[in-house]
Amino acid sequence: MSGSAKWSEVALKFGSDEPDIVPSQRNTDDFFSIPPTHQRADAILAHLRYPEARASFVSGMMDIYDNAPGVNRMLVEAGRLGIFSFVMGLWADYNPQDRTTWPTVNRLKGQIDRCGLASSRHIDDVLAWLAATDYIVLQRIADDRRVRLLKPTERMITQDYRMILPFFRALDLLFGGARYALFLERYRACQRVRQKVTTAIFPWATSLLPQNRDLTIFFDRTCAIQILFKLVALDATRSEHAARETSLVEFGTRLGMSRTHVRNILRDAEEAGLMVRSRRDGVFHHLTPDCVTAFDRFVANALSLVDRACLLTTPS
């Protein structure tokens, strides 16, 4: 049976026959009412160890991109990654006695619709892929057989931890503190608490995009942000450290992208003034100072967001 046929079979499981359940608003209210005591982006950028923290963060992200080919289909597209995060958050908020917290397909679609992250059909496709690749299972409710709950598997929980770990390592390097150490040492206990605010954080996290408009070209194209991370990882931030185009193309193909698509990303970034192309025994690319500055701001904003969430992950 072909892969696409399997996808189609799994997709049939995700219909709309379950009753509508009103989403809970508790997490959002709690999240936005906490005091603004998290680490701000400006403080992160001004920290003397920021270059070291950025290197740690980029290295951690590259470990995921380079060593997890099975999840690259999810990592290269923001909609898929957002759906993954929402499923984790809804499951963590699940209380069998409170129907408004049940992690159903309809509730997931309602949460994502508020962010404008993906269409209903796209959500069905991603859920089908997550089920076919053993990231989620559909759990029936004994009292109402129409309802199917989206339950993360151990594989999904482990992958979620791997994706958040680079953020906490960078924050721990910068600021230390009990809450980072607690998360890193006892991540499973803290992870469930952290995931309870995922659905509240994600709408706010989408503000990272307008806050970093200079990098829009990398956000709008599949795999482009990974190419940007690869250039930073190669230290291609000045002409003497320019990265060979063939290595970038090879990296993109490992993520499932065509050579043409990767070269189009590089060309468009160059036209946007974010990259410089040069020739010397081959084609090379390096980032412009404006692009490096924008990348640093993006990293600082992302770390600040995770630190904000971390305020709610440390058990009292």
In CATH, the homologous superfamily of the domain at 213-294 goes by the name Winged helix-like DNA-binding domain superfamily/Winged helix DNA-binding domain
**Helices and strands: which structural class?**
mainly alpha
- Total strand count, please? 5
Q: Can you tell me the CATH architecture of the domain at 213-294?
A: Orthogonal Bundle
- Mean pLDDT metric: 77
Binned, the helix content reads 55-70%
CATH class of the domain at 213-294: Mainly Alpha
Poorly predicted regions are 1-36
CATH topology of the domain at 213-294: Arc Repressor Mutant, subunit A
- SSE order, one letter for each helix or strand: HHHHHHHHEEHHHHHHHEHHEEH
Outline the fold blueprint.
Elements: H1 3-11, H2 26-33, H3 41-46, H4 50-67, H5 72-75, H6 78-92, H7 105-115, H8 120-132, E1 136-141, E2 144-152, H9 154-175, H10 178-185, H11 187-195, H12 198-205, H13 208-211, H14 216-220, H15 224-233, E3 243-244, H16 245-254, H17 259-271, E4 275-279, E5 283-287, H18 289-310
